[in-house]
Amino acid sequence: MLRLLCIKLPQEVRHRASPLSRGNLFSTSSRKPNSGLSNSKDPRALTVSFLQNSCGLSVESAISASKKLNIGNAENPNSVLDLLRTHGLTQTHIRNLISSRPILLLADLGSTLKPNIELFESLGFSGPSLSKMLSKEPRMLESDAYTTVKFFREHGFSDEQISTLTTKRPTLYTFNAQKIFKPKLEFLKSLGLSDSEIAKLLSAEPYILERSLENHLIPCVQELRQILDTNENVLKAMKACYWLIEYDVEKVLRPNISMLMKHGVPRAMVLKIFLIQPKALLLRSHRFSEVVSEVMKLGFDPNNILFVLAIRSMAVMSKTLWEQKLEAYRSFGLTKDEIYSAFKRQPMCMISSEMKIKKLLGFFVSKLKMTPSMISKNPNLLLLSLEKRIIPRCSVLQLLMLKGLIGENTSIVNMFRMSEQKFVDKVVSKYQNEVPDIIRAHQGKIEFEGFLFDLKM
């Protein structure tokens, strides 16, 4: 086919070297291009010539694209290319865009392309971000973008949320918002979600808008209601995991819930897993079975909330990441038994990032002289913020120690565990008159250098 097409093309088109090799492509500068058309009167040849010379397409791509449009006059196509360059698209971006959507060259410049690009720029898209978005869905340039944006604004979406929607799912601009999106927003509102909650949910998971209302969303919520008993619980689960209603509840959730029940997990505990971390129940059945078996093997009681937290912790990370965190603990001297002892006391100690685990352990070991055994017995400390709680409180205790106001019998663990208000009332406010710098220490403005003597755990 390619050979037959080339035979029909004029000699100058058939034998012309690729524009890329001859350096004839236009740069991203504002230099106005020539018409890009050859002298041939053959419409097909004229189109191929323009696509090669002005858009940078290869001969093969230009021939393929020419089947979708006919350029008789280069005025509009050149204006389209000028517009794209003006708004920061490089020649590479333009080549890729026209290759995927050649008909854009004939689009209405004044009433469609220009207003749409300006609208997208008002949402924060320009240059690279604009071209990246258009590469995902070039049809959005020809859409009624203004009506789509207006629809979301009228339903409580901020421009930032609309920008997020646009980034994640530019195909939304190809839908009729009133016909496709409005019934879904009304359905979500009927469940008890406010406009702001719906905007937050959909900007996080815009794929929901493309799901069928009758065939997916409604059946999904009905299934959730059967599992969770009340609309209130359904809402809690949806807020805890926005993309819950994207899943096939019957095929994914039902088998995992049945598996828990077979292991003797009471229904009340299953509901807690659902409400605390529904994402854990959305794992593939094989992986979920591994997690449940491992938690049972470690000796967690299915009737205890720690069982729920252990499921949550193990389910939200891959085996590789789990091993990396175990290695982080081992690198500071904790044995396998000490690590799992800490995990059994506080399963959430494995949720922290590997970096946070290393930073906390490094401070505990080097600055506070804690032993691996001490850390294993107090895993709740690993849930605290080093910068916002631990170091400022150490600075406070350091000042009080220097003034002789606290002794070795002060429990550092208790000091760390206190709520912020309680620590202020019992420590900062209590000694404020005697030690004025205690305020600055509590604000993190006095460096912690170490304690004069070890405090008890």
Furnish the topology, listing elements before pairings.
Layout: H1 2-8, H2 11-14, H3 19-22, H4 43-53, H5 59-65, H6 75-86, H7 91-100, H8 109-122, H9 127-136, H10 145-154, H11 159-168, H12 177-190, H13 195-204, H14 213-228, H15 231-240, H16 249-262, H17 267-276, H18 285-297, H19 305-315, H20 319-330, H21 336-345, H22 354-366, H23 372-377, H24 386-402, H25 412-417, H26 420-431, H27 438-442
Helix pairs in contact: 4-5, 7-9, 11-13, 16-18, 17-19, 18-19, 20-22
Description:
It is a single chain. With 457 residues, this protein is mainly alpha-helical. Among the domains are: 41-142, Transcription termination factor 3, mitochondrial (Alpha Horseshoe), CATH 1.25.70.10; 317-383, no CATH class; 389-443, no CATH class. Helices cover 61% and strands 0% of the residues. It has 27 helices and no strands. It has helices at 2-8, 11-14, 19-22, 43-53, 59-65, 75-86, 91-100, 109-122, 127-136, 145-154, 159-168, 177-190, 195-204, 213-228, 231-240, 249-262, 267-276, 285-297, 305-315, 319-330, 336-345, 354-366, 372-377, 386-402, 412-417, 420-431, 438-442. Helix 7 (91-100) runs parallel beside helix 9 (127-136). It is elongated, with a radius of gyration of 32 Å. The termini are far apart. The model is unreliable at 1-34 (pLDDT under 50). Residues 20-41 are annotated as: Disordered. It comes from Morella rubra (Chinese bayberry). Keywords: Transcription, Transcription regulation, Transcription termination, Transit peptide.
